[in-house]
UniProtKB/TrEMBL annotation, chain A:
GO terms for molecular function: asparaginyl-tRNA synthase (glutamine-hydrolyzing) activity; glutaminyl-tRNA synthase (glutamine-hydrolyzing) activity. Heterotrimer of A, B and C subunits. It catalyses: L-glutamyl-tRNA(Gln) + L-glutamine + ATP + H2O = L-glutaminyl-tRNA(Gln) + L-glutamate + ADP + phosphate + H(+); L-aspartyl-tRNA(Asn) + L-glutamine + ATP + H2O = L-asparaginyl-tRNA(Asn) + L-glutamate + ADP + phosphate + 2 H(+). Keywords: ATP-binding, Ligase, Nucleotide-binding, Protein biosynthesis. It is an enzyme of class 6 (ligase). This is Aspartyl/glutamyl-tRNA(Asn/Gln) amidotransferase subunit C. Its EC number is 6.3.5.-. Allows the formation of correctly charged Asn-tRNA(Asn) or Gln-tRNA(Gln) through the transamidation of misacylated Asp-tRNA(Asn) or Glu-tRNA(Gln) in organisms which lack either or both of asparaginyl-tRNA or glutaminyl-tRNA synthetases. The reaction takes place in the presence of glutamine and ATP through an activated phospho-Asp-tRNA(Asn) or phospho-Glu-tRNA(Gln). InterPro entries: Asp/Glu-ADT_sf_sub_c, GatC.
From TrEMBL, chain B:
PANTHER family: GLUTAMYL-TRNA GLN AMIDOTRANSFERASE SUBUNIT B MITOCHONDRIAL AND PROKARYOTIC PET112-RELATED, GLUTAMYL-TRNA(GLN) AMIDOTRANSFERASE SUBUNIT B, MITOCHONDRIAL. Allows the formation of correctly charged Asn-tRNA(Asn) or Gln-tRNA(Gln) through the transamidation of misacylated Asp-tRNA(Asn) or Glu-tRNA(Gln) in organisms which lack either or both of asparaginyl-tRNA or glutaminyl-tRNA synthetases. The reaction takes place in the presence of glutamine and ATP through an activated phospho-Asp-tRNA(Asn) or phospho-Glu-tRNA(Gln). Heterotrimer of A, B and C subunits. It comes from Pseudochelatococcus lubricantis. Belongs to the GatB/GatE family. GatB subfamily. Its EC number is 6.3.5.-. It comes from the Bacteria. This is Aspartyl/glutamyl-tRNA(Asn/Gln) amidotransferase subunit B. The lineage of its organism: Bacteria, Pseudomonadati, Pseudomonadota, Alphaproteobacteria, Hyphomicrobiales. It is an enzyme of class 6 (ligase). SMART domains: GatB_Yqey. Residues 342-487 form the Asn/Gln amidotransferase domain.
Length: 95, 490
């Protein structure tokens, strides 16, 4: 699998990373280098192997349904560039 | 599989008949104290960003820990939908950017949902019953809320809802009309409320629907569908489907093609319109969330939850039909809400079920609807209504007086039996007293006595007169017999 220039632009846009036209060929070759490195794994037949989700044989820990957090709106919005009555204020987004 | 086309659902276009095909994704907020992956409150409302933990606001380094009750609620819902419960499921990240999604992704389930295939039996208002297949149910986080009308140049973001657990319930495209779609949502809502896994409050956004609509010529392959996002009332779901189906038929009949797209329902205009901005966002790049291991549990856990499930509407309805002899329609009306069904059973206890259903549905519901009340706020208790029915059964009062008595109990309260005593509402079964009243009417109206011999239907006039003179308390059957006898008609 190899990526073309349009794919690079598309991925960058989806990740909201500004990429200039000059940067695209460089990023494309870097991505393709990574992909071809990883592609070595294709040599191994894993058709009968379940995907590994963790290196440790443990189950997902669950917590009891108890309300024990929140109540500090001032801390939640403390780092926001703009706030109003503990709301985050962002540029208008409306359909 | 091509099911036979049901002709009653077809809609006429300019160039022939069309069939609507509808599938739905329902987002149902899970009833729990705290959020899916954090300990912040799920309570509706609250001051801005007050019910938010550092996890919900996606502060760096915060890790999600799953709420065991939300898992149980999803399993209960799956059982209520007669669905396959998956003992192993996986959480994935669904990536997109929006101001009310601080993580930049929603934790959801993609390939391996907690609940697999199931079904819902739906009663359509025209009397038909359809089965709507459930494709899956998965757990996911709700997003925050953007408010656009408080500030002219800006949107305000409140994350109180961010991270609340949602169950996304995906149906198969098994509905063929807006009526069927509305009946499906109604039924699903009833099941969720019986289970206690979602309050079903559409006004508060606890239940929201994305509706997939396409049209086709009867018997042909599925057409291209459009998805109408976030329709928040059952009535709007119907309107959105009607509008969208006619729009698509219009485009196709003019020789055009349908673009698969996301559309928004405008409740003010009653129409759907394209949401172009959502198009590119459809590349969600799902991948397993590295912060969460697969969710696993034993079959014994599922069995334990199954044991604790309440009687569900379908079973309750069947029992009402078989045990109380109710019609399927009446039973359906009574089981639509659990509180209503409980009220009915209280009234019907050791009484005639049909009479109880009749009084609950026709008299009580009629009156409650008129006053905007529910069984929970009803001024007439099940005990009082039961006493009224007993008095009719014992022939102490007539059906007509019973309605007056109901009215008295509704407005003034009190024990129906005592009211009947105090106000002398007992019906007269003493034939001597009735005969005297009949004689008086006959004596005073010789002309009518002549007429009734030629026109027996005039008997009703005599009944009315005697009832008037006895204050409606004459036993109707006894009165009829005596009148016929004295007037010499069969």
């Amino acid at each position: 699998m190899a990526v073309d220039e349009n794919t690079v632009r598309r991925i960058a846009h989806l990740a909201r990373i500004a990429v200039t036209d000059e940067e695209v060929p460089h990023l494309q070759s870097e991505l393709n280098a990574i992909l071809s490195f990883v592609a070595q794994l294709d040599a191994v037949d894993v058709s009968n192997v379940e995907p590994m989700t963790s290196v440790l044989p443990m189950a997902l820990r669950q917590r009891a349904d108890v309300m024990n957090d929140g109540g500090y709106a001032d801390r939640i919005v403390a780092n926001a560039p703009q706030t109003e009555d503990n709301y985050f204020v962002v540029p208008k987004v409306v359909e | 599989m091509n099911a036979p086309v049901a002709t009653h659902n077809l809609i006429k276009g300019a160039t022939g008949d069309w069939e609507i095909v509808i599938g739905m994704e329902i987002h149902a907020q899970v009833l729990s104290q705290s959020k899916l992956f954090s300990g912040a409150s799920t309570e509706f409302g609250g001051a801005p960003n007050d019910h938010v933990s550092l996890v919900d606001a996606a502060f760096p380094g915060m890790l999600p820990v799953i709420n065991a009750e939300c898992v149980a609620q999803a399993v209960r819902t799956g059982l209520g939908l007669k669905a396959k419960i998956n003992l192993r499921s996986v959480f994935d990240r669904k990536n997109y950017f929006y101001p009310d999604l601080p993580q930049g992704y929603q934790i959801s389930q993609y390939k391996d949902p907690i609940v697999g295939e199931g079904e819902v039996i739906v009663d359509v208002p025209d009397g038909r019953q359809i089965v709507v297949g459930i494709e899956r149910l998965h757990l996911e986080q709700d997003a925050g809320k953007s408010i656009h009308d408080l500030s002219p140049g800006a949107s305000l973001v409140d994350l109180n809802r961010s991270g609340v657990a949602l169950m996304e319930i995906v149906s198969r495209p098994d509905m063929r009309s807006s009526e069927e779609a509305k009946a499906y949502v109604t039924k699903l809502r009833t099941i969720l409320r019986y289970l206690g896994t979602c309050d079903g409050d559409m006004d508060k956004g606890s239940l929201r629907a994305d509706v997939n609509v396409s049209v086709r010529r009867p018997g042909e392959a599925l057409g291209t569908r459009c998805e109408i996002k976030n329709v928040n009332s059952i009535r709007f779901i119907g309107q959105a489907i009607e509008y969208e189906a006619r729009r698509q038929i219009g485009v196709l009949e003019d020789g055009g093609t349908i673009d698969q797209e996301t559309r928004l329902f405008d409740a003010n205009k009653g129409e759907t319109r394209s949401m172009r901005s959502k198009e590119e966002a459809h590349d969600y790049r799902y991948f397993p969330d590295p912060d969460l291991l697969p969710l696993t549990f034993e079959q014994a856990f599922v069995n334990g939850l199954a044991t604790g499930l309440p009687e569900l509407p379908d079973a309750k309805k069947a029992r009402f039909v078989s045990d109380y002899g109710l019609s399927a329609y009446d039973a359906g009306v009574l089981v639509a809400e659990r509180e209503t069904a409980d009220f009915f059973e209280e009234v019907a206890k050791a009484r005639d079920g049909k009479a109880a259903a009749n009084w609950v549905i026709n008299e009580l519901f009629g009156r409650l609807n008129k006053e905007g009340l529910t069984v929970a706020t009803s001024p007439v208790s099940a005990h009082q209504l039961g006493a009224v029915i007993d008095l009719i059964g014992e022939k102490v009062i007539s059906g007509k007086i019973a309605k007056d008595l109901f009215e008295i109990v509704w407005t003034e309260g009190g024990d129906p039996r005592a009211i009947v005593e105090e106000r002398g509402l007992k019906q007269v079964t003493d034939t001597g007293a009735i005969e005297a009243a009949v004689d008086a009417i006959i004596a005073g109206n010789p002309d009518k006595v002549e007429q009734v011999k030629l026109k027996p239907t005039l008997l009703g006039w005599f009944v009315g007169q005697v009832m008037k003179s006895t204050g409606g308390k004459a036993n109707p059957q006894a009165l009829n017999d005596i009148l016929k006898d004295k007037l010499g008609i069969e």
